[in-house]
Amino acid sequence: MLNDFQIKYLPLIDERMCSYLADLNTYPTLKQAMLYSVQAGGKRLRPLLLLAVCQSLGRNIDEQVLGIGASLEFIHTYSLIHDDLPEMDNDDLRRGKPTNHKVFGQAMAVLAGDGLLTTAFENLASLDLPAESKVKLMGQLALAAGPQGMVDGQVGDIEGEQKRLTLAELKIVHKKKTGALLHFACLAGAILADADSKQTEALLKFGDCFGLAFQIYDDILDVVSTSEEMGKAVQKDATENKNTFPILLGLDGAYQALTDVLTQAKQELEVLKQMDVDVTLLSEFLGYFKLRK
The domain spanning residue 238 has which CATH number? Predict the structure, then answer.
């Protein structure tokens, strides 16, 4: 089911993003730099999760839903461009291709990220949605992406390099750094589908579990995977004194933490199922995480 869903909607998400950026009235170099990172590929998990929530709640996936998915992915892509800069993670590869600053230079990479972040809200504001819903979505997206969300998590990650965080502190960092945009994906789907408060609560708990699982799994892959498989440098976390789940818990402990949070995610889906929500598609998202046998 998820495979068919991806085959149907991934091209529509990509087309929505690229056609929007292509129509911008801007210097060609800036447009090229923005499109370079958007077109580099990626799993598009955040917009796909948003669309999946809509479908699960019976909301038609139209141009407005695709538009919000595009805005969400613009912000995710901007964060990757800035993460890769020498001042941040100093990476040469992203999705198997040279990072943005390696192709366009640091200044243009910063501006490409700035452009994607800002135009995400320009795009959202242009959508044909009720004013109340639009304002709520814009406010929640800003909250997820900004200094109380993803950006704050990035600060916690950087400052954590100077000390060893506790497990509770690490979870707080990644609830914002990684989890905030996935939380928004579930919230946006709930808003668009007019979900009730109990459905929304369960969806957000599921999204938070998914976000934590995503980070634990990414930390595990940094240890056990290869650059070819990941499309970026691996085994950097230990050498750069990063706080990660395998470093704090050991590899076995990280796998157990992943198992535990996936169990929690499944419990939230059971809650939704009891409210007559078809959770088949959402449950298949948990197949992204490969547990060690």
Answer: 1.10.600.10
Residue whose entry in the numeric block shows the structure tokens 């917009």:
47
Give 84-98 pLDDT, tens digit per residue.
999 999 999 998 899
What span, in angstroms and rounded, lies between the C-alpha atoms of 13 and 51? Answer: 10
The structural domain count of the chain equals: 1
Return the pLDDT at 69. 98
* Tens digits of residue pLDDT in 34-84: 999 999 988 999 999 999 999 999 999 999 999 999 999 999 999 999 999
Give the C-alpha separation, 120 to 71, whole Å.
4
Q: Domain limits at 59?
A: 2-288
- pLDDT tens column, 267-290: 999 999 999 999 999 999 999 998
* Residue 293 belongs to a domain: no
Is pLDDT at 233 greater than 70 in this prediction?
no
